[in-house]
TrEMBL record:
Gene that this polypeptide is encoded by: ruvA
Species lineage: Bacteria, Pseudomonadati, Pseudomonadota, Alphaproteobacteria, Rhodobacterales
HAMAP family per the UniProt record, alphabetical: DNA_HJ_migration_RuvA (MF_00031)
Top-level taxon of origin: Bacteria
Record's protein name: Holliday junction branch migration complex subunit RuvA
A GO biological process held by the record: DNA repair
Family indicated by similarity: Belongs to the RuvA family.
Length: 224
């Protein structure tokens, strides 16, 4: 099983890239979001990968973060959701958007993905809602991939060119994970904590950690 590839892009197509890994070319299918963010031909890149193996088919799918790869794995575990539908959902919402939609039970957001009907969208939410907190808490693992190829630094998949200094604010995935951990320590169930965190971020995406926890606690407070 191939779990990650680091190499240089030979070319980008409409639904995949050809990645040259020390002379061996790998066709890697990606979401529209990932493809749009990848650097151009000749640039170094690293992608987490998931392999689809069938009797008459062998395909690789690439993701810039472990969180996105895990969402792909879970989405394709839902009956009726194949790799194409999973990439369509990730293209439409991104991994953070998928987590929020599922945690909030917002199947209409899932349905917005190309080729995904209401029945499939409802099934995705129903089957993955209890699994959303674990994926959302993977914030610490969601850092973009960095590798070294022939002693040259390879930039992250979605950060072409020289890497800029990391911004001070934590990425949304890290905020979600830390907030979920804090609420869990306060005794809240993972599913209800995930729903509150997702709703709070949906209402105000600019919340910092303290503000996010306060907003989630207000949502979790018993209603009179």
């Amino acid at each position: 099983m191939i779990g990650k590839l680091s190499g240089r892009i030979d070319y980008k197509a409409t639904d995949h890239v050809l990645l040259d890994v020390r002379g061996v070319g790998y066709v890697v299918h990606c979401s529209d979001r990932t493809l749009a963010a990848l650097p151009g031909p000749g640039e170094a890149v690293a992608l987490y990968t998931d392999m689809l193996v069938r009797e008459d088919l062998l395909q690789l799918f690439g993701f810039p973060t472990l969180v996105e790869k895990e969402w792909h794995r879970l989405l394709t575990s839902v009956q009726g959701v194949g790799a194409k539908a999973s990439l369509a959902i990730l293209s439409a919402l991104g991994p953070d958007g998928v987590g929020r939609a599922i945690a909030l039970g917002d199947w209409n957001a899932i349905k917005a993905a190309k080729g995904v009907g209401p029945k499939i969208a409802q099934r995705v939410v129903a089957e993955l809602k209890d699994k959303a907190p674990a994926v959302m808490s993977m914030g610490g693992q969601s850092a973009e991939v960095t590798e070294v190829i022939e002693d040259a630094p390879v930039p992250a998949a979605i950060a072409p060119g020289p890497r800029a200094p990391k911004p001070a604010p934590k990425p949304a995935a890290n905020l979600q994970g830390d907030a979920l951990s804090a609420l869990s320590n306060l005794g809240y169930q993972p599913s209800e904590a995930a729903g509150a965190v997702a709703q709070a971020l949906n209402e105000d995406p600019d919340l910092d950690m303290a503000g996010l926890i306060r907003a989630a606690l207000r949502l979790l407070a018993p209603k009179e």
